[in-house]
Amino acid sequence: MDAIALAEHALGVPQLILAVPPRLPDGFEAALEPLVRRREAREPLQHIVGFAAFRHLSVRVQAGVFLPRPETEVVAQAAVDEVRRLSAGGVEPLVVDVCTGSGVIALSVAVEVPRSRVVAVDIDPASVGLAKANADLVLPGAATDAAVRIEVGDVAEPGLLAEFDGAVDVLIGNPPYIPDDGIPLEHEVADHDPATALFGGGADGLDLPRHVVAAAVRLLRPGGLFVMEHADVQGETVRDLIDRTGAFEPAVTHRDLTGRDRFVLARRRPT
Ligand SMILES: C[S@@+](CC[C@H](N)C(=O)[O-])C[C@H]1O[C@@H](n2cnc3c(N)ncnc32)[C@H](O)[C@@H]1O
């Protein structure tokens, strides 16, 4: 897969169909060789070719900003389904994506359910800049017509987006959740994803996710849906910390396409 993607990049073609090989231009090998060397050195494919695929989108990536992952596509699906259901009922759903990174969750919702309003925040200005650039790429004009708003924001800040308290239909987040001592083994992750995107804080890695839960309690309207990604070993702990707030119907863990626990859904109770 990676070799084909690098050859496509070197050739400047969107899709290489090997059954009908293209005539290789002069200089192809010289162009391909350094790309292969970078990948051999475990630089992520997405950084070499400059984009990442996520659901229906192809977005830009940037050194120092978290690369979107395939498992998060399933997490985003839960938000898309809920927003689509609400939109079909005639409302214009309000969605908040905390910890937006490159913006892929927020932008997937906005692109797949055009009658929605999406607000996305991230603590990292570089991520916010990239998410805005991606919004311009996949939804030109969305920022100006207020369908998508992306800004710097700290999910641990008690007054974050206070103007939407109790009014949000869906709050989704893929916060950092790796424990302090859980240094990732893959070079692609350890050497390229920023630490602020990986480590959730605390021995269990759940300090940041706890702040996301608190933000969901405050921001969601009664009946609003909370969606949060977590590590495959955190399902029970995350359900427990949500249920202990008393603010939600019982939390339910869902799996990703590899069958691992990956995200939680919980519906906000009326206060
Ligand atoms: C695991 S990445 C997820 C990015 C994107 N949502 C995705 O799924 O590809 C976590 C993101 O949370 C951001 N982040 C870390 N601490 C934060 C905080 N206190 N408030 C808001 N965002 C934060 C990081 O900058 C990073 O972009």
Structure description:
By secondary structure, the protein is α/β, with parallel strands linked by helices. It folds into two domains: 2-41, no CATH class; 67-267, Rossmann fold (3-Layer(aba) Sandwich), CATH 3.40.50. The chain is built from ten helices and nine strands. It has helices at residues 2-11, 28-40, 45-49, 70-88, 104-112, 125-138, 187-190, 195-198, 207-219, 235-243, and strands at 51-54, 57-60, 94-98, 117-122, 148-152, 168-173, 220-229, 252-255, 261-267. Strands 5-4-3-6-7-9-8 form a seven-stranded mixed β-sheet, with helices on both faces. Strands 1-2 form a two-stranded antiparallel ribbon. Strand 1 and strand 2 form a beta hairpin. Helix 4 packs parallel to helix 5 (104-112). The chain is globular, with a radius of gyration of 20 Å. The relative contact order is 0.12. Bound molecules: S-adenosylmethionine.
Task: Provide a compact summary of the structure.
This protein has ten helices and nine strands. The protein has 271 residues and is α/β, with parallel strands linked by helices.
Q: CATH fold name of the largest domain, please?
A: Rossmann fold
- Please tell me how large the radius of gyration is: 20 Å
Q: What count of domains describes the coordinates?
A: 2
CATH superfamily of the largest domain: Vaccinia Virus protein VP39
Q: Give the overall silhouette.
A: globular
The helix count comes to 10
- What ligand species are in this complex? S-adenosylmethionine
Query: How does CATH name the architecture of the largest domain?
Result: 3-Layer(aba) Sandwich
